[in-house]
Design goal:
Blueprint: H1 6-24, E1 33-34, E2 37-41, H2 42-61, H3 85-106, H4 121-143, H5 151-171, E3 185-191, E4 201-207, E5 210-215, E6 222-226, H6 228-235, E7 247-250, H7 252-261
Parallel strand pairs: 3-6
Antiparallel strand pairs: 1-2, 3-4, 4-5, 6-7
Amino acid sequence: MTLLAHERYCDEIAHQVEQLRSVVTSGADLSATVPTCPDWSLEDLVRHMGGALRWVDALVRGRAQENIPEERITLAGGPGQRGDAGALDAWLAETGELVVGALREAGPDTKVWTWAGVPNSGFWARRMAHEITVHRADATLAAGLPYEVAPEIAADAVDEWLEIVEWAQRNIPHDAAKELRGPGRSIHLHATDAAPALNAEWLIELGEDGVTWRRGHEKATVALRGPLTSVLLAFYRRLPLDAPGLEVLGERELLEFWLERATFG
């Protein structure tokens, strides 16, 4: 699939950091449980996301050729005092500036360690753009705030998820994604509100040799239809399949089977 431009991913990380900061400073209860990540509070979620961004900053800025342990990353866990929205916001703002600056300076082709077979800084720009896009959805759900995302980002997030699932089921021993292999089953995703030029439809085939996928409108064993943002969030297990605007046609059990197993962490 054609990727978005490196600068577009960098811009989106910067935008999503600003949007996440607005959740932190909205007056939301930082101790509230995140419905889609029930082991975390809203503050835990923000600290996790900021820590991931600081980790990527360290990898890219240092041109790392192997993983960097969390304990070697400055302020990876966030500010010392919990429950302080101002300190959390300031830390997140600095974090965004650091990682976006490092990614812009590196460009897309600088060699950097990654975990998914694409050893360059471009991988991290794309990965972090989608990581924070989805985690901001978690944050808005916890805070009871509205959520929206640019259509091209949402569509590319589906692409990236499928690429990583495809990679994981071929390369990670004992990964649950290996269970997706089987004869003649398929899943169709159909964004009903996307512009035709975006081609926001996907066919995922679960064959004996593994998962394959492509963009396009084709019949399948089961189809998930709805607005693009809702399809994205349901596919990332952030919305239930029965959420308003979503429709499941065909063998729902297959889609549920996929959602239980198509993961990379």
